[in-house]
Amino acid sequence: xxxxxxxxxxxxxxxxxxxxxxxxxxxxxxxxxxxxxxxxxxxxxxxxxxxxxxxxxxxxxxxxxxxxxxxxxxxxxxxxxxxxxxxxxxxxxxxxxxxxxxxxxxxxxxxxxxxxxxxxxxxxxxxxxxxxxxxxxxxxxxxxxxxxx
Length: 149
Fold this sequence. Notes:
Mean pLDDT: 90
Helix content: 10-25%
Shape: globular
Number of domains: 1
Largest sheet: 4 strands, antiparallel
Radius of gyration: 16 Å
Low-confidence stretches: 137-149
CATH class: Alpha Beta
CATH topology: Hypothetical upf0131 protein ytfp
Order of helices and strands: EHEEHEEHE
Number of helices: 3
Protein name: Gamma-glutamylcyclotransferase AIG2-like domain-containing protein
Number of strands: 6
InterPro entries: AIG2-like_dom, GGCT-like, GGCT-like_sf
Strand order of the largest sheet: 1-3-2-6
Strand content: 35-45%
Structural class: alpha+beta
């Protein structure tokens, strides 16, 4: 089964280079229906939300690399198995949508329930659900009312 990636595993991002480069059979644009994207500490979290959409890529691993890649991505995403209390993300099989409108079942890592609950209360949603379009929040007013970095 392919992977739907939406953050640091997307092409051009650091974890794509570390984990996926040279180990994929195909990479294509896709969206994840019924999910919203929140900004995390240097990486995003997708959370289930009907009607929202997350932008990303559909990654199909080379068959010979699949098992090892799945295990490595589970470790990266701090996923220890279904419903485990230490999970940062949970891995689900969800329908992703290709640009031509066809759907494909893919693995996707969503924020674990406790993290998702906190994000819904206090998280910063990424408008449009696209990690590449995130913007930094100003830290506060600088001299003469200009934002400071």
